[in-house]
Write a structure and sequence with these properties.
This protein has about 500 residues and is mostly helical. The chain folds into two domains: about 280 residues, no CATH class; about 220 residues, no CATH class. The chain has 22 helices and no strands.
Length: about 500
């Protein structure tokens, strides 16, 4: 975990800055400055772009995770591994751009009834998708080189600062919504362009076919793994995009705006955990290469403990003051409260199960993961379709996604345990659950003594939020850190405080 700790420290700091910016944008400025329909258009375009990116990558992301440790050789320029995958992505992007144009009519027909305004801007899916697919390629390659800081900084900070600036300009009537939307969509290409220039200057990406020297005995393995992982990862991205696409086609853009705002809030909570998984994935691949099951068990359990802490802290920090927080929003966002609850629970289990997805994807039994992913897709689609038609709206969609994610992660973790005897759970984890339940009990006790009502002033509501967050820090975070309930979390905080103190002394 030494490399992981060193790189994760820097990427986590950047990720927290990105988390603050993400909340400023999605949970504050979007809600204050854009209508729910405008939020729906922006988020549906970005979601569709992510789907396009997953279609276009043709499995290169998981190939990099799984096989780059075998090709990493500075003297031989890593056998041209990056250029080979670059060409694959280039072909994929070209093919699906053509298909997007060919199927434009049925795409428009699907959205024209409930979300006609989306049809007007649908072409912006292409720059978002192409920019994101090349970013994924470059990011995963740099991840294999243990160079995570620049990609994280570009995606989590630079892109969000640009979003903030564009929102401010739009709010000051400096541009129309059409111009704001176009610039926002084009900005999604910036991280990929910067990484492209960086890799060319570092001579990691050389445009010479002669530099591709992947041994023939590996090529067939690469193509087979790429084809399978493509199908599997495609099913995974379908899960992410399915909710927004179904809501857009069956309910409307305003509902997409509310639902995707809740998704953005819960996704922002994953930023610290994703920072850890970014630097852990090449370590997992390295351990598989070395057949180091003990190392895998160690990193699996440590990531699970950190994930559980982050998940519980996120749940407590957002859900406990949910009534007070939503009292500051427009009335139409009240429909997002049950959605937020179900998504938070789903994300909590997702983080608690740690690196099960990466372990599965980089193991020899990676093919079996397709069964779990297909279950995830089918379950969400069937439940979404049933609950939307039954009149449950976005609350039904949130419930479907949350509950299916719980079963999906638990089933996958159980299979990994049966196959490799790798277990992400530790006995001390029950203490984290007990502390969280204690904070929840205190919250509802205080709510019963001091109920919130419609006559409560804004200042009183802010005070209530502050009190609840204080109790989360006092009765959950403090015991975990001070008593070392979760060693990785306690160690990280203590190292952080040591570095801050040392810098202050030097100054």
């Amino acid at each position: 975990m030494g490399v992981v700790k060193q790189d994760a420290f820097r990427t986590t700091l950047i990720a927290y800055v990105g988390l603050i910016l993400g909340y400023l944008n999605k949970a504050v400025l979007f809600i204050l400055l854009l209508s729910t329909v405008e939020i729906g258009i922006v988020n549906l375009l970005i979601t569709s772009g992510l789907f396009f990116a997953q279609l276009s990558n043709l499995g290169t992301v998981y190939v990099t995770w799984r096989f780059f440790p075998f090709f990493r050789n500075e003297a031989k320029k890593n056998y041209g591994f990056l250029l080979l995958n670059f060409l694959v992505v280039l072909v994929g992007s070209a093919v699906f751009t053509v298909l997007f144009c060919v199927f434009q009519h049925p795409i428009n027909a699907y959205f024209s009834t409930k979300s006609p305004l989306f049809v007007q801007y649908a072409w912006w899916v292409l720059p978002v998708g192409i920019g994101h697919v090349f970013f994924l390629l470059f990011e995963n390659y740099l991840r294999g080189l243990f160079k995570n800081v620049l990609p994280v900084f570009l995606q989590d900070v630079v892109l969000r600062v640009i979003t903030t600036l564009l929102l401010v300009v739009y709010a000051m009537k400096g541009c129309s919504f059409e111009v704001f939307l176009g610039l926002l969509m084009l900005s999604n290409c910036l991280p990929a362009v910067v990484l492209w220039i960086y890799l060319v200057r570092k001579k990691e990406l050389m445009f010479s076919l002669k530099s591709i020297a992947v041994p023939r005995r590996f090529r067939r393995i690469l193509w087979q793994f790429s084809a399978f992982s493509y199908i599997n990862s495609l099913a995974s991205i379908v899960v992410i995009t399915l909710d927004a696409l179904m809501i857009g086609g069956m309910i409307g853009l305003a509902a997409v705006g509310v639902y995707t705002t809740m998704v953005q809030i819960t996704s922002a909570l994953l930023v610290p955990f994703r920072a850890m998984t970014r630097v852990s994935s090449p370590i997992v691949a390295k351990y598989w290469k070395e057949k180091n099951l003990q190392g895998l068990q160690e990193i699996y359990q440590k990531s699970s403990g950190v994930g559980l802490f982050i998940g519980l802290l996120s749940f407590l920090g957002v859900w406990l003051p949910v009534k007070e927080l939503f009292s500051f929003l427009r009335p139409e966002f009240q429909a997002g409260i049950p959605v937020l609850l179900f998504l938070l629970l789903g994300r909590l289990v997702d983080m608690y199960c740690g690196l099960n997805g990466i372990i599965f994807a980089t193991s020899k039994k990676y093919k079996y993961d397709l069964g779990f992913t297909l279950f995830l897709c089918a379950g969400i689609f069937i439940l979404n379709y049933t609950l939307i038609n039954a009149g449950y709206g976005i609350a039904g969609v949130g419930f479907a996604t949350g509950i299916i994610y719980v079963f999906y992660n638990l089933a996958r973790s159980f299979y990994i345990f049966k196959a490799y005897r790798l277990n992400p759970f530790r006995r001390n984890h029950w203490v984290l659950f007990a502390l969280a339940l204690g904070v929840i009990f205190i919250k509802y006790l205080l709510e019963w003594i001091f109920p919130l009502n419609t006559t409560s002033t804004a200042m009183l509501r802010l005070v209530r939020i502050g009190v609840m967050e204080f109790f989360v820090g006092l009765f959950f975070v403090f015991p975990v850190v001070y008593y070392g309930v979760e060693p990785e979390v306690a160690g990280f905080v203590k190292r952080f405080m040591t570095r801050v103190t040392t810098k202050r002394i030097k100054v």
